[in-house]
Amino acid sequence: MKKEESGGDEVLALDPLVVESQLLSYQHSAASFVVKLQGMEIIGLSEFIIEDVCVNVQTLAVTINLRYDSLLLDGEYDISGKLVKVIPLSTRGPFTVTASNARITLWVKLKTCRGRLEVGQLRSELVVGDVHLDLSHMTGGSLVSKYVSSHLANQIRTHWQQHEPELSMVLKKHLNDELKNVSLMSLQLLQSTDKYMRRGSLY
Predict the structure, then answer these.
(1) Is the N or C terminus of the chain more exposed, i.e. has fewer CB atoms within 10 Å?
(2) Sorted alphabetically, which Gene3D superfamilies does this protein's record hold (predicted)?
(3) Minimal CA–CA distance to 15: which of 98, 100, 88, 73?
(4) CA angle 100, 103, 50 (to 5 degrees)
(5) CATH number where 186 lies
(6) Averaged over 98-122, what is the pLDDT?
(7) Residue pair 26/33 in contact by the 8 Å Cβ criterion
(8) pTM for the full model?
(9) What φ, ψ does residue 31 adopt, rounded to 5°?
(10) pLDDT over 70, % of the chain
(11) Cα–Cα distance between 123 and 111 in angstroms, integer?
(12) Residue 128 belongs to a domain
């Protein structure tokens, strides 16, 4: 698992971001099988486009809207089971989920610490648009393909919420790296200017 150092603590790397293995089961009159998903990584989280940034210099609250042209979820699947309770089903291979038009909103609360700005609190939300699934060596007919496709298509959508602590830690580190270039003197100047403008003192 790829990790980075952050002040003595190890945090997950942003790109690729490792996803935990999952074991799924499915029961139906036409088929019953177990699917193991492993070796999964989300690729592309560092390739974002900043669409909008809103900053309240008085409360140090920041909202950031990011857009991704595409995100990839790669991994391996292993299926075993039976079709119509008789025909053995066993197949494995790689898969790729491509999500386009994904958007992430970050709500950040900054704080001053040791003479500089740092991220105090961070909350995030990921919304995925169109999803395309590519399975290799897939057998078992449309029922099996439909079930596996449906689950994997939801992986990127649900992954953000399931792994919020790890993702927040990663994003917090990257934002703190960027904030090293912002001086408190610049912040204080912005705060003073903002107050005067609100009072009409600059008009």
Answers:
(1) C
(2) Haemolymph juvenile hormone binding protein (3.15.10.30)
(3) 73
(4) 110
(5) 3.15.10
(6) 85
(7) yes
(8) 0.66
(9) -165, 150
(10) 69
(11) 15
(12) yes
Q: Is 53 helix (H, G, I), strand (E, B) or coil?
A: strand
Number of domains in the chain: 1
Pick 129 or 75 by higher pLDDT. Answer: 75
- Return all residues near 189 (Cβ < 8 A) that are at least 6 apart: none
Residue 81 lies in a domain: yes
In total, the chain counts a number of residues equal to 203
Would you list the DSSP string of 105-124? EEEEEEEEETTEEEEEEEEE
- Predicted confidence (pLDDT) per residue in 43-85, tens digit: 988 888 889 888 887 888 989 898 888 888 899 989 888 877 8
The verdict on residue 12 lying in a domain is no
Taking a C-beta distance cutoff of 8 angstroms, is the pair 23, 40 a contact? no
Beta strands in the chain (DSSP E): 3-6, 9-12, 17-19, 22-27, 31-43, 49-56, 61-83, 87-113, 116-127, 131-135
